[in-house]
Design goal:
By secondary structure, chain A is mainly α. Chain A is built from five helices and no strands. Chain A is elongated. The relative contact order of chain A is 0.19. The N and C termini of chain B lie close together (about 10 Å). The chains are: A mainly alpha, B mainly beta. The interface of A and B includes residues 68, 75, 150 and 160 of A.
């Protein structure tokens, strides 16, 4: 059973909830759209932060988010193309995209150390949310074995990102 | 320890051909005069095995079977693969005995160790 994940950050940033769906579990086409949206949100935030962030370490991390999430999206897109699964937009993928747009809008109003903290705080919460969605909604509901295997294989990358973001977060609090 | 021989030697050995050649090398290495090849597979944000044991003159191959690019970069900078794309590999001929800790330049959580004996 999927759970509604609502994470509200203090301040101007609010993450999109990955809503519990009243209807059936997401099918592979919807899962594909969710994965692509989730990666794209982080790519967009990373592109912006790689130029805007004050600290070099944060810019480097942001650039890494662009590299890694682009690589995952390329792999996911190759797979669903080969499987002839067309990603189907849905409430969850739309919610992720909306949340990403809101986050970017909020980040655009910040700069300096405030920007760095806001960006990194969001990256921590966002990766936690995406990992939880992988575990509770996406991996359990993937029908195609290759799609499921891909989701399982990307999880460690997101966990590594989360750990990296947490270390940065601790640095920024000093 | 003395520095390993750095090698920006991008091996052309890949896939099933690589497996066959690796098998031949393993056979050849049963003769003590010939060097062995050891493969470190990069997958799931891990170097596997975490510690690779090699003899001086052996070759160590880092094969990226992960979804994202990685590097194999020594903490003391005695070797640095540079970017290894998914599906690509990089190899190094190791020098004298000693141990080197290394990691991935992109992902600070990744740790590995090369022990040469």
């Amino acid at each position: 059973m999927k759970q509604s994940l609502v994470v509200v950050l203090a301040g101007t940033l609010a993450l999109a909830a990955i809503p519990a769906q009243a209807g059936p579990a997401p099918d592979d086409a919807q899962i594909a759209a969710i994965v692509v949206a989730a990666n794209q949100v982080d790519i967009d935030a990373g592109k912006f932060a790689s130029e805007r962030a004050a600290l070099g370490e944060v810019r480097t991390f942001a650039q890494q988010m662009v590299t890694d999430h682009s690589a995952v999206n390329a792999q996911a897109t190759n797979l669903v193309t080969r499987l002839e699964v067309t990603p189907r937009k849905n409430a969850t993928s739309a919610s992720l995209e909306e949340g990403g747009a809101r986050n970017l809008a909020a980040l655009r109003k910040l700069d300096g150390p405030q920007f760095d903290r806001a960006y990194v705080d969001h990256e921590v919460a966002y990766h936690e949310q995406v990992i939880d969605a992988l575990d509770t909604a996406l991996i359990p509901n993937a029908s195609n074995a290759e799609l499921k295997a891909l989701l399982v294989q990307v999880r460690p990358a997101f966990v590594a990102h989360l750990e990296h973001a947490r270390r940065l977060q601790a640095t920024l609090k000093r | 320890m003395s520095a390993v021989v750095p090698g920006n030697i991008r091996s052309s050995v890949r896939g099933t051909r690589g497996t066959a050649i690796a098998a031949l090398l393993a056979l050849a290495a049963s003769s003590p005069a010939l060097a062995a090849t050891h493969t470190v597979t990069i997958v799931g944000m891990l170097f596997e095995p975490a510690t690779v044991h090699a003899a001086p003159g052996d070759r160590v191959v880092w094969l990226n079977r992960d979804i994202v690019p990685h590097t194999a970069t020594a903490a003391d900078r005695t070797f640095d693969s540079g970017r290894i794309e998914p599906g690509q590999q990089w190899s190094l001929v190791v020098g004298a005995a000693g141990a080197i800790d290394y990691g991935c330049a992109y992902h600070p959580t990744m740790q590995g160790r090369l022990e040469v004996q």
